[in-house]
Automatic annotation (TrEMBL):
Name this protein carries in UniProt: GPI ethanolamine phosphate transferase 1
Domain GPI ethanolamine phosphate transferase 1 C-terminal per the UniProt entry, residue ranges: 439-919
Primary enzyme class: transferase
InterPro entries in alphabetical order: Alkaline_phosphatase_core_sf, GPI_EtnP_transferase_1, GPI_EtnP_transferase_1_C, Phosphodiest/P_Trfase, PIGN_N
Naturally occurring in which organism (per UniProt): Mesocestoides corti (Flatworm)
Length: 967
């Protein structure tokens, strides 16, 4: 199918379409559009809300037993306000956390494909509902809340500190918090009268805006947690500085009694942090944040009668200061702000107003919770109407727990309870409506996901059958027939195909126009039918499917039958290897079992190693695979760090490369400081380890990292691949070592633990694999010189029209090693919880886009080495088969087709495991699993093209050394 341009275009287009389908099915925005605002029935409770966020602050580091480091906050908790915990949802990141706080809903999963740092919020928030907004904070958070329709509005003032202050290695990280409070202090000194102004009416033309919102974003806790970790003394001093800054804020209000009496304060964090300085996942230390509220209409401290029962009841703290504490969802703070200011709740808010945090009478609480319930019911009604309009009414199923009739009945009940002054019952009724409405929103958002998923899985199944039929029909045809095969594959029954496709296209347009369906979603439903038509209207495909494929595998040579198990048994074992790889995505230790099976392969399939010293090589291969099997059992990289181990790994890689190159040199071994490209790279690998070690030492000493280290690191990153490509005439040994070091150097500059050792062992196994697959002796294979063509190869006569063991083995081994390179260290399951220290050689100032790009490049480095080795195996194999009557491209075609079938097999598994809830770690992991699986087939083609450019067909240095040994 890859043998014609049409086939290539079709397959690539199908890959892209199936990949994009996950974002059309799983990762669509849950936001509801088209909501109208009504005038709030309850007046504002306060004129001002001061909202202070300590980015990344750990709750247990603030709420210590005596709160000895935070006297100001301790006095508030004990004497003036209420305290408790805000429970975030994963992903525990800055954007999702702040979106939940100010927009009232948890991160729009559709933004998984978008950047977040500089994007304005594309939905409603309390910033847009307030009459005046004053915000100071980090350049990565505060600017994104600029209301798009209020740009240039003098009532909105948003200011952030310079991006250069986000330096993780700065001597005084707390300067960012001081900057925020300094700017607020200047504002209060010069313009505090602005906070006395508020639009008490809030006109419809102005969106019923009321009150003033002050937002202070303190980000030192996040920076300090990443660099010095939450358990450090520096982190404790940072908390002391936060307390001192809050004391400064309070002093500014105490000087104006009128202002203080009309202000409510909320102090919390957007997310927490792990002990090793990361966040993004779902541990308690990441999802639970401190919450302290005080001011007008906020309850004062309430003693707890039963201390033993309340102490640690929620499993968070073993003490509670003898006071009642509250647990709220993070999104619930949004309707709390709206209630305090008397503004409409932001359009997409799904928060439930925490009435316990309001000190007002019961009738007012009922009015507030009623507005909250009516707001979410509006969203539910819009979702209901949208889904109803897109489906046949006879098949449409309404959310059974909250039908339209049930909504009417529950609202009537709540109204009756309010009229009878049974306020507590009315509040519970409205709360039930809110919770059921939230379930209904989720139900309608995922309404047809199962059916759409079934269509995608069916498309994969039919496509795999097409690939299989195409491969079998090619091998079943004589060489003289193969040129016509490609054409017939795409031109069989052209009139039938054209008529059918025209009918499908017409059907898509009709369904889309009548039921307002997305064009792509309609196409996904028809895709299995289209592929089935192509499959069944092709005569050769039908012939393959109608006959048993036993003859296809039974065509292996007599010699192979004598020397090992049949292809069917090998295929079963290879499938087991893939299962280990597949479940290794989720449980890394299972990859170790796959490595053990890989190590035992020469004992199972004797055609794998056909060299003279077979037994010794079997033991070496087994030993290498046993060492490789150790890494998935080690802790995930990111939880620990060891610059010493990084340096040792660099020394080992450099030394091994130098010794190997000297052993393979045909002339007098060059001096270590040779200017030849491959020896320059050997030195570069050693330098990379030294740089990492120096940077870690400087960070440990809280010393600034010199600019020279950054410059050298960037030069190594860019120059290493270029140096590897300098020489145009190299032996296989030099080229492999050069390309491996070219990828090792940037990889090593971002290492924090044992990744360098893993890279070394993985490439050793890959080198041995390429050598064994060639069937050549050590000096023959690594002495091959990369030339422009394979004309010097001695021809080998014979007919080869079946799939042999190498055809099957090589794609499976390649896929397994690609997966192993991704998950052997566990540091690329998600870039969401990475330790910024891994990129300190390149930058120390926070830059998520650049840091993410560097980490993605780090992920790619090992797989590029495996891809290069696989390309070399293919080129050697094609060259050795140059004399066969079967065209050389068919061997490549067969292995590529097998790779695509494997990729489809993995993709179907991971499509079923896709997640749109949970942490960015969970969501990103499920997407990356699916992408990796899909990429295997497509990447094999790209890597082959990549290999053809870097590894041109090899010929022997001396023709007499090469004696092709076909397997």
């Amino acid at each position: 199918m890859f043998s014609s341009k049409l086939g290539i275009i079709f397959s690539v287009s199908l890959y892209i379409l199936l990949f994009y389908s996950i974002f059309d099915i799983y990762y669509t925005s849950p936001l509801t559009h088209g909501l109208s605002y009504d005038r709030p029935s309850v007046p504002g409770l306060v004129n001002n809300v001061v909202f202070i966020v300590a980015d990344g602050l750990r709750y247990d580091k603030l709420f210590t037993e005596k709160m000895e480091h935070t006297p100001t906050l301790r006095s508030i908790v004990m004497d003036r306000g209420s305290w408790g915990f805000s429970h975030t949802r994963v992903p525990t990141e800055s954007r999702p956390g702040h979106v939940a706080l100010f927009a009232g809903f948890y991160e729009d999963v559709a933004s998984v494909t978008k950047g977040w740092q500089a994007n304005a919020v594309e939905f409603d928030s309390v910033f847009n509902r307030s009459n005046q907004v004053f915000a100071w904070g980090g350049p990565d958070v505060v600017p994104m809340f600029q209301p798009p329709d209020r740009v240039g509005d003098a009532r909105v003032r948003i200011e952030s500190y310079p991006h250069s202050m986000l330096d993780f290695t700065a001597e005084n990280i707390t300067q960012v918090d001081d900057w925020v409070v300094d700017r607020f202090s200047e504002f209060m000194t010069a313009e505090s009268d602005l906070l006395l102004k508020t639009d008490s009416s809030g006109s419809a033309a102005d969106g019923f805006r009321r009150g003033n919102l002050v937002f202070l974003h303190l980000s030192a806790a996040d920076q300090m947690g990443h660099t010095q970790k939450p358990g450090s003394e520096e982190y404790t001093r940072m908390i002391q500085n936060i307390d001192a800054n809050i004391a400064r804020v309070l002093k500014l209000f105490e000087g104006n009694k009128q202002l203080a009496q009309e202000t409510a304060f909320i102090f919390t964090a957007d997310h927490g942090m792990t002990e090793w300085g990361s966040h993004g996942a779902g541990s308690l230390h990441e999802t639970v944040t401190p919450l302290i509220v005080w001011g007008k209409h906020i309850p004062t401290p309430s003693s707890v009668a039963d201390l033993s029962r309340a102490s640690g009841a929620d499993g968070l703290l073993p003490f509670n200061y003898g006071l009642k504490h509250y647990n709220v969802r993070q999104a619930d703070l949004c309707p709390l702000i709206a209630a305090l200011l008397g503004t409409p709740i932001p359009a997409n808010s799904v928060g439930e107003l925490p009435l316990d945090l309001l000190d007002v009478d019961s009738s007012l609480k009922v009015a507030l919770i009623r507005e909250n319930a009516q707001h979410i019911l509006k969203q539910l009604h819009i979702k209901y109407e949208e889904q109803k309009a897109c489906h046949y009414r006879v098949f449409f199923r309404e959310f059974s727990k909250l039908t339209q009739n049930q909504i009417t009945a529950m609202l009537a009940t709540a109204t009756s309870q309010t009229r009878n002054q049974d306020y507590s019952a009315a509040i519970e009724t409205y709360r039930s409506i809110i919770r059921l409405s939230l379930e209904g929103l989720n139900y309608y958002h995922k309404y047809d996901r199962f059916f759409m998923g079934f269509c995608i899985v069916a498309s994969y199944a039919v496509w795999s059958l097409m690939l299989y039929a195409d491969m079998v029909s090619r091998h079943g045809a004589r060489p003289s027939q193969q040129n016509g095969l490609t054409k017939s594959t795409w031109t069989s029954s052209p009139s039938t195909l054209l008529v059918f496709l025209a009918l499908c296209f017409t059907g898509v347009l009709i369904i889309r126009s009548v039921y307002h369906r997305s064009l792509l979603r309609t196409f996904y439903q028809l895709l299995p039918l289209i592929l089935s038509t192509i499959l069944l209207t092709n005569s050769r495909f039908r012939l393959v499917l109608s006959r048993s494929s036993g003859h296809f595998f039974s065509a292996e040579s007599t010699n192979e039958k004598r020397t090992g198990p049949r292809l069917g048994m090998l295929l079963l074992l290879l499938t087991v290897l893939m299962e280990f790889a597949l479940w290794g995505f989720i449980r890394r230790p299972l990859l170790s079992f796959g490595a053990l099976l890989l190590g035992a392969w020469p004992y199972i399939d004797v055609s794998f190693i056909v060299l003279s010293n077979r037994q010794t090589l079997q033991r070496l291969w087994l030993a290498a695979c046993l060492v490789l099997a150790v890494f998935p059992t080690l802790p995930v990289v990111g939880s620990f760090s060891s610059p010493t181990l990084v340096l040792i790994s660099s020394v080992c890689v450099s030394a091994a490369s130098y010794v190997f190159l000297q052993k393979r040199c045909e002339s007098k071994p060059p001096h270590f400081w040779s200017t030849e490209p491959h020896f320059i790279l050997v030195v570069g690998a050693l330098v990379s380890g030294v740089l990492v070690f120096l940077v870690r030492c400087l960070v440990a000493l809280s010393a600034p990292i010199p600019l020279l280290i950054h410059v050298i690191s960037w030069i190594l990153l860019v120059a290493s691949p270029a140096v590897a490509m300098v020489s145009a005439d190299l032996t296989v040994s030099r080229k492999l070592v050069s390309l491996t070091l070219a990828f090792f150097i940037p990889f090593n500059l971002m290492n924090v633990f044992y990744e360098g050792a893993f890279f070394f062992v993985l490439t050793t196994v890959a080198f041995m694999w390429s050598w064994f697959e060639s069937g050549l002796e050590f000096h023959e294979f690594f002495g091959l010189r990369l030339a422009s063509d394979a004309s010097a190869l001695p021809p080998v006569t014979g007919e080869h029209t079946c799939i042999d063991r190498a055809n099957l083995r090589q794609p499976f081994f390649y896929v397994f090693l690609v997966i192993y390179s991704f998950f052997g260290t566990g540091n690329i399951a998600s870039i969401n919880t990475f330790d910024p220290v891994s990129v300190y050689c390149f930058m120390t100032v926070l830059n998520p886009a650049a840091m993410g790009t560097l980490l993605i490049f780090k992920m790619v480095c090992p797989i590029m080495v495996i891809g290069t080795v696989y390309a070399l195996i293919g080129r050697v194999r094609e060259s050795l088969r140059a004399g066969l009557s079967t065209p050389r491209r068919d061997t490549h075609h067969t292995e590529t087709t097998i790779l695509m079938i494997i990729a489809n097999f993995l993709a179907v598994h991971f499509f079923a495991m896709l997640r749109d809830e949970g942490s960015w770690l969970d969501i990103g992991e499920s997407i990356s699993h699916y992408v990796i699986a899909m990429s295997i087939g497509l990447a094999s083609v790209l890597l082959s093209l990549f290999g053809r450019r870097m590894l041109t067909p090899p010929t022997p240095t001396e023709p007499r050394l090469l004696t092709p040994k076909l397997k």
